[in-house]
Specification:
Layout: E1 23-27, E2 45-52, H1 56-61, E3 85-88, E4 94-96, E5 102-105, H2 106-115
Antiparallel strand pairs: 1-2, 1-5, 2-3, 3-4
Length: about 120
């Protein structure tokens, strides 16, 4: 008999964000994998790493001599990124903060799988 999981789905638009450099299973409907044979919409899920940056308001509040005032990173709010964070894919890809619509903490998923004896972490 299968046990039910208790993993929580989080929503960034409700200011529910993971810890910096956390790995998550993220739902990215704006850029799905190219798979026309996916009736359940599973191609929208990806493993990503959350990276916190700074917002425009935080940048403006920095002292004039602070080097972060003039250095812009991909995880900062600027240009097309409307949030003070982004999501890194394995390899060179990344997603703007606003592109991820939901996420699940992979450490919770890992704990759930280990509690079932599903795999060895070695």
């Amino acid at each position: 008999m299968a046990r039910s999981t208790t993993m929580k789905i989080h929503y960034p638009d409700q200011d529910d964000l993971p810890g910096d450099n956390s790995y998550v299973l993220a739902w990215v409907p704006s850029r799905p994998w190219n798979d026309s044979h996916d009736p359940e919409g599973l191609r929208f899920w990806r493993v990503l790493k959350f990276q916190r940056g700074i917002t425009q308001a935080e940048r403006e509040a920095l002292p004039y001599r602070d080097k972060r005032k003039k250095i812009f990173r991909g995880c900062d709010e600027w240009d097309n990124n409307k949030c003070g964070y982004n999501w890194q894919e394995f390899g060179p890809g990344s997603y703007f903060g606003q592109e991820v619509k939901a996420w699940i903490d992979l450490s919770e998923l890992n704990q759930e799988a280990q509690s079932h004896g599903s795999f060895d972490s070695d």
